[in-house]
Amino acid sequence: MGRWETIEAAGASARQYVAGDETPGMPGTVLLHAWWGLVEDVIAFADRLAEAGFTVVAPDLVAGKTAATVEDAEALVGGADEAHGDAVTLAAVDWLADRLGPDSTLATIGFSFGAAWTLWSAAERDRIKASVVYYGTMLGPSLGRASVPVMGHFAANDPFETDEGVAVFEAALRDAGREVTIHRYPNTGHWFAEPSREAYRPEAADLAFSRTVDFLRSALL
């Protein structure tokens, strides 16, 4: 359904997947991948968002590398260049904003590893009007430098993002004056929304997707 583009980010090239109608004024979404890299699950999610009426770009934050196992993914993100991820994220936001024109509004969605860039970028670009995170959080001054609403989808049983950690994240957003909606999904674990993973739970994934689309339509349209 989509196509591939190359963008320039801080003197380096990065690829991104583009899906959806690129008519000026369309609502746009930047989709930031989990620690597996820009894999088929991300592409399929981008296509699904496009079918729901959004123009989507999914940039590659790890220079074309992918991982299939947790061990490989840990090694991949352990060697990731944070500054490169910053630059690629903002380059993707700027590319989409330019493509859709000044009348469009944008959102960011991040899975796990991509969640921090999702939240951080809203403090860097005022074209971003909403942020969605899937089982990923962050803390720090960026939360207070942005004002857009946040929706979070979290698993009931997740050693990476515990109930306590999610509660701290939610409190930090509220303390910063942010509107935040947190959903927890019973009988799920980390990666429950990614079809290629053993943790995938289709009912929870579909509910999270439906909530995400409703949230984005409310924020962007």
Describe what you observe in this structure.
- There is one protein chain.
- The protein is an alpha/beta fold and 221 residues long.
- It has a single domain (3-220), classed as 3-Layer(aba) Sandwich (Rossmann fold), CATH 3.40.50.
- It contains seven helices and eight strands, in the order βββαβααβαβαβαβα.
- Strands 1-2-4-3-5-6-7-8 form an eight-stranded mixed sheet, with helices on both faces.
- Strand 1 (3-9) and strand 2 form a beta hairpin.
- The chain is globular, with a radius of gyration of 16 Å.
- The two termini are 23 Å apart.
Any chance you could write out the topology, listing elements then pairs?
Elements: E1 3-9, E2 12-19, E3 28-32, H1 40-51, E4 55-59, H2 70-78, H3 82-100, E5 106-111, H4 115-121, E6 128-134, H5 142-145, E7 150-157, H6 163-175, E8 180-189, H7 202-220
Parallel strand pairs: 3-4, 3-5, 5-6, 6-7, 7-8
Antiparallel strand pairs: 1-2, 2-4
Quick summary:
This protein has 221 residues and is α/β, with parallel strands linked by helices.
Q: What's the arrangement of strands in the largest beta sheet?
A: 1-2-4-3-5-6-7-8
Anisotropy-based shape? globular
- State the end-to-end CA separation: 23 Å
Q: Which CATH-level-2 architecture?
A: 3-Layer(aba) Sandwich
By CATH, the superfamily comes out as: Alpha/Beta hydrolase fold, catalytic domain
Please report the first level of CATH classification, the CATH class. Answer: Alpha Beta
CATH fold label: Rossmann fold
What is the total domain count?
Answer: 1
Overall pLDDT: 95
- Give the number of helices: 7
Question: Strand fraction band?
Answer: 25-35%
Rounded radius of gyration (Å): 16 Å
What is the N-to-C order of secondary-structure elements (H for helix, E for strand)? Answer: EEEHEHHEHEHEHEH
Structural class: alpha/beta
* Portion in helices: 25-40%
